Amino acid sequence: MIKNLNSSREVKILAHQRCNMSVFKVRRVIDQIRGRSYEETLMILELMPYRASYPILKLVYSAAANANHNMGLNEADSFISEAKVNKGPIRKKLRPRARGRSYLIKRPACNITIVLKEKSKDQSPI
């Protein structure tokens, strides 16, 4: 989804509808990149030891490519204006246990949203 708001251009991308990770594990990575420039975000995500950083890195690459292709935004002049993680659906599975019983396993998922915005001359990131 692409929006034009008051001559400040922003690109909003929603991806990984069902990223199979807990919201809390993804949120600790998202909190580190919110408000940072595009290049700084890439460096942070490539060096972080968490499993959640790889899907977020792919999402940031995708948002920058969409911004460049669809709106002509320069990747070097953009920053992460909004990054959020919402709870997604929970898959439930049954695992067999002793004496014919079963044990419920909950597999959480999450939705990740990244908004890229272009830096203007009079605007600072956050």
From TrEMBL:
Keywords of this entry: Chloroplast, Plastid, Ribonucleoprotein, Ribosomal protein, RNA-binding, rRNA-binding
Stored PANTHER family: CHLOROPLAST 50S RIBOSOMAL PROTEIN L22-RELATED, LARGE RIBOSOMAL SUBUNIT PROTEIN UL22M
Name of this protein: Large ribosomal subunit protein uL22c
InterPro entries from the UniProt entry: Ribosomal_uL22 (IPR001063), Ribosomal_uL22_bac/chlpt-type (IPR005727), Ribosomal_uL22_bac/org-type (IPR047867), Ribosomal_uL22_CS (IPR018260), Ribosomal_uL22_sf (IPR036394)
One GO term (biological process): translation
Localisation: Plastid, Chloroplast
CDD domains documented for this protein: Ribosomal_L22 (cd00336)
UniProt similarity note: Belongs to the universal ribosomal protein uL22 family.
One of the Pfam families matching this protein, by short name: Ribosomal_L22
Summary of subunit composition and partner proteins: Part of the 50S ribosomal subunit.
Gene3D superfamilies reported for this sequence: Ribosomal protein L22/L17
One MF annotation (Gene Ontology) recorded for this entry: rRNA binding
Keyword Plastid: yes
Main location: plastid
Role, per record: This protein binds specifically to 23S rRNA.
Keyword Plastid belongs to the record: yes
GO cellular component: chloroplast; large ribosomal subunit
